[in-house]
Amino acid sequence: MSEAAGSVHRLDDLDAALVHCRACPRLVEWREEVARTRRAAFRDQQYWGRAVPGFGPADARLAIVGLAPAAHGANRTGRMFTGDRSGDVLFAALHELGLSSQAESNSAQDGMRLFGVRMTAPVHCAPPDNKPSTAERDTCSAWLTRELQLLRPDLRAIVVLGRFGWQALLPVLTDAGWLVPRPRPAFGHGVEYEIASAAGNGSIRLFGSYHVSQQNTFTGRLTPAMLKDVLGRAAGYAGLVVQTRSRLDGDGGGISRAVR
């Protein structure tokens, strides 16, 4: 699929090509099996059951990189982080910061918009047990490489959710034209690193966060405040307008400020 990814020059064309990818037999079999059998709570719904493209504008200044679509989340709805508990946490934080139009993301037809933010993943198909193989990650990397190349003119910051996404992203950054230092930056919640461009024309800042998985959010390893801190710092670095209010202030109690 590297040739298919590299041959497109517009982000919407990349997304359209990606959904037809069948390069990883195990992932194709699993995503389609889940779409056939369905979870009881969603038995009356038509599952997406294909590769899931990134979500967000082509001129995004901030990218959020996860792991892979959830079997009954994005694999069901066809949109990144949509339709599961992980997405509930992430979109709530983005909404509080003024970076999404809604606090809940339930379906690809719910009118959700992201402001200056693009969501994507190193693996675009739902994997069994949420564990893609190294070979599957590497096979899928050409899509993320091309996506970042197309985002590059405006991209200023990347938030990576989880160690798997971090380890998958670093070689992709090299392929996409950035100079990842050696030894490679270590993952950790709240870490940030400046990554220079190989062409010498600017840099991006890489931010780490624990993943918004139920395992992390239900146990308190990742709290809403911790997530908002990382997202807010990254958005500020990217020059986006963020909210300073809490949801407890109500819809009308927010104060917006532009930070860099």
How would you portray this structure in words?
This protein has 260 residues and is an alpha/beta fold. 37% of the residues lie in helices and 13% in strands. It has one domain (2-258): Uracil-DNA Glycosylase, subunit E. A 6-stranded mixed sheet has the order 2-1-3-6-5-4, with helices on both faces. Strands 7-8 form a two-stranded antiparallel ribbon. A hairpin with a 5-residue loop joins strand 5 and strand 6. The model is unreliable at 247-260 (pLDDT under 50).
Distance between the termini: 37 Å
- The CATH architecture category equals 3-Layer(aba) Sandwich
Q: Figure out the total of helices.
A: 9
Report on the biggest sheet.
Answer: 6 strands, mixed
Write down the CATH topology. Answer: Uracil-DNA Glycosylase, subunit E
Q: What structural class do you assign from the helix and strand content? A: alpha/beta
Per DSSP E runs of 2 or more residues, the count of β-strands stands at: 8
Strand content: 5-15%
Radius of gyration: 17 Å
Uncertain runs: 247-260
Let me know the average pLDDT.
Answer: 92
Helical residue percent? Answer: 25-40%
Order of helices and strands: HHHEHHEHEHEEEHHEE
- Per CATH, the superfamily is Uracil-DNA glycosylase-like domain
Subunit arrangement of the protein:
single chain
CATH class: Alpha Beta
* Order of neighbouring strands in the sheet with most strands: 2-1-3-6-5-4
General shape:
globular
- Can you tell me the number of structural domains? 1
